[in-house]
């Protein structure tokens, strides 16, 4: 998942980013409302972790602006303000959850897992052909058998499955898999697609990742899948 972290305390920001990266997320860190706002206009983030006291204003203003624009991404507020009225103001502005500093790393990770699970839970995960991706985004089953993928391959599969039957641009895949500043080889997406295809095929998945030359990829249930390999 791609996460925007807006927090101006450098040490705390680095710590949180390291924890989120350890959970397999691509994290962009910003310290001002202006920079975060620009990034939010450019990228579809899966989660916003938002500090309130920022050098160029109040995080709640950014949150209200996002909600007014119809952006539904989950938002976790991090703040030293712990008065009840501050929490209420945060939730009223459209925050999904609220964590008071100082907090324990495990609590942060648990809250974030819960927030990222929310939208998927409604659909009980995703299914395409005999491939089932659990609502937690981590468990994957092919014909009922678990399959382990590397985290970017898993993120790629989730992205393609969310857009099943539609052509997705290579640039959009890259944007969903990598944070700004990540070292990205020019053929990174191709390499991930190649490996993912091989693993899915070996596991007997009855779906296909089609290459749309010069544009991107499309995943679809495959008619020519290997029958008899299903569990
Ligand atoms: Ca602050």
CATH superfamily of the largest domain: Response regulator
Query: How many β-strand stretches?
Result: 14
- Beta percentage is 15-25%
How many DSSP H or I helices? 8
> What are the segments in which pLDDT stays under 50 over at least 5 consecutive residues?
119-123, 224-231
Please give the CATH class of the largest domain. Alpha Beta
- N to C succession of SSEs: EHEHEEEHEHEHEEEEHEHHEE
> Alpha-carbon distance between the termini?
30 Å
**Mean pLDDT score:** 87
Task: Describe it.
The protein has 231 residues and is of the alpha/beta class. 41% of the residues lie in helices and 23% in strands. The chain is built from eight helices and 14 strands. The two termini are 30 Å apart. The model is unreliable at 119-123 and 224-231 (pLDDT under 50). The protein binds calcium ion.
């Amino acid at each position: 998942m791609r996460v925007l972290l807006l927090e101006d305390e450098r040490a705390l920001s680095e710590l949180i980013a390291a924890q989120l990266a350890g959970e397999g997320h691509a994290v962009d860190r910003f310290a001002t409302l202006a920079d975060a706002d620009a990034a939010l206009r450019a990228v579809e983030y899966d989660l916003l972790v938002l500090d309130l006291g920022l050098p160029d204003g109040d995080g709640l203003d950014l949150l209200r602006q996002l909600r007014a624009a119809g952006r539904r991404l989950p938002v976790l507020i991090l703040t030293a303000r712990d008065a009840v009225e501050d929490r209420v103001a945060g939730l009223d502005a459209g925050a999904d959850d609220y964590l008071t500093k100082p907090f324990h790393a495990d609590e942060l990770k648990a809250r974030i897992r819960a927030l990222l699970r929310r939208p998927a839970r409604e659909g009980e995960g995703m299914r395409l052909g005999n491939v089932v991706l659990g609502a937690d985004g981590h468990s994957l089953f092919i014909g009922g058998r678990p399959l382990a993928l590397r985290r970017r391959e898993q993120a790629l599969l989730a992205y393609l499955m969310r857009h099943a039957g539609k052509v997705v641009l290579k640039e959009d895949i890259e944007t969903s898999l990598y944070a700004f500043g990540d070292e990205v080889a020019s053929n990174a997406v191709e390499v991930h697609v190649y490996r993912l295809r091989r693993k899915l095929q070996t596991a007997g998945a009855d779906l296909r990742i089609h290459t749309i030359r010069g544009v991107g990829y499309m995943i679809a249930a495959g008619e020519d899948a290997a029958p008899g390999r299903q569990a």
